[in-house]
Amino acid sequence: MTNGPGDTISVAADTLPLPAPQAEFSIGRIIPLVSSADKVYTEKEGVTGLTTDYISGLRRVEGQPRPPGPVNTDMSFIILSISLLLITVLTAFSRRSIIAGLSSISFRRHEAIVPAGTSEVLTWPPILRNLFAVMNVSLFAATALLVPGLADRSLFNGPAGLTAILAGSFLSTLLLRHLSCIVLAGISGFKSLFREYMTVIYNAWFACSVILFILNGVILFAPLKNTLPFIITGLIVIAIFLLIRALRLLSIFHDRHVSVFYFILYLCALEVLPVMVILKILGIF
Q1: What distance, in Å, lies between the first and last C-alpha atoms of the chain?
Q2: Mean pLDDT lowest for which of 113-122, 216-225, 266-275?
Q3: Could you say which DSSP state residue 156 is in?
Q4: Which of 30, 81, 275, 285 is the most exposed place for a label (fewest CB within 10 A)?
Q5: Percent helix, strand and coil across the chain, each rounded to 5?
Q6: At residue 92, what are phi and psi to the nearest 5 degrees?
Q7: Is the pLDDT score of 31 beyond 50?
């Protein structure tokens, strides 16, 4: 059937709701805007022109400053960034030095060691490794004292001052230990022994600081509710490396056929006594 010229066709009316036309508007220059108790009525208000803030019933939310954490995150971010740069440079340009250093704390070495002299210790790879160790050990020590509340946040003018004091103390301890090893090596005649022992000390602290570097980043910047397990993990790691260092000292004395009496004497002079002095300075006992 075809429609003729006079026929009509019924078309269903369009019943889709269309949005009512509205004037241009602006959400305002103050963000965020909130209306907690007051109701917002926009139907009765006309917009005569484009304004910066025309909706009534809205009020500004006063921002509350975020409470500062126990450790200065800006200072920690700088330290961790420099540490990342140092480990990147060492990995890229001194990988063999890192591998040789880490092998010095291993108990599975059979070849003879040629310990580095004083001039070689002052070259740039050992200096960067020691700087990396000093920065991360001191940052972890400050974190372990401030986060659980063992030390007041205002101590030494804040976390940055405490970290600087701990870094200086740790560096001074390394230098005094190096000097004492030189003196004892000259008195006893075991120069090669003490050079190897100092190599073990430096590389043990470097290996320990690599783990502490990771723990520092997790403790300070990861969204954790409880960071105490990571602090305890770091303390356990430090204790393990101190034990490894003492056992390596024993193996060095054993391989060179030195009396156990001298081992005990040197262990007390080089390991126990410095720790007791540091604990006494910090007021632990």
Answers
A1: 110
A2: 113-122
A3: G
A4: 285
A5: 60, 0, 40
A6: -80, -40
A7: no
Instruction: Report CA 19 to chain centroid distance, whole Å.
Output: 55
* Residue 223 neighbours by CB distance under 10 Å: 4
Q: Cα 104 to the chain's mean position, in Å? A: 26
Q: Tell me how far CA of residue 131 lies from CA of 78, 128, 168, 196, 205, in angstroms.
A: 14, 5, 11, 20, 11
Which runs of E-coded beta strand occur in the chain?
A: 33-34, 59-60
Q: What are phi and psi of 59, to 5 degrees?
A: -135, 155
Contact (Cβ atoms closer than 8 angstroms) between residue 146 and residue 153: yes
Match 């056929």 to its residue by tokens: 257
pLDDT band for position 131 (cuts 50, 70, 90): very high
pLDDT bucket at 75, cuts 50 / 70 / 90 = confident
Contact 69, 143 (CB under 8 A): no
DSSP-derived secondary structure letter, 123 = S
ω into 159 cis (within 30 of 0): no
Query: Alpha-carbon distance 228 to 231, whole Å?
Result: 5
Residue 89 token pair: 């440079």
Cα–Cα distance measured from residue 228 to residue 225, given in angstroms and rounded to the nearest whole number:
9
Sequence length of the chain is: 285
100 CB-near residues (< 8 Å, 6+ apart): none
The model carries a pTM of 0.69
Question: Measured in whole angstroms, how far is the alpha carbon of residue 117 from the centre of its chain?
Answer: 32
* Residue labelled with tokens 């003018």: 157
Residue type, 212: L
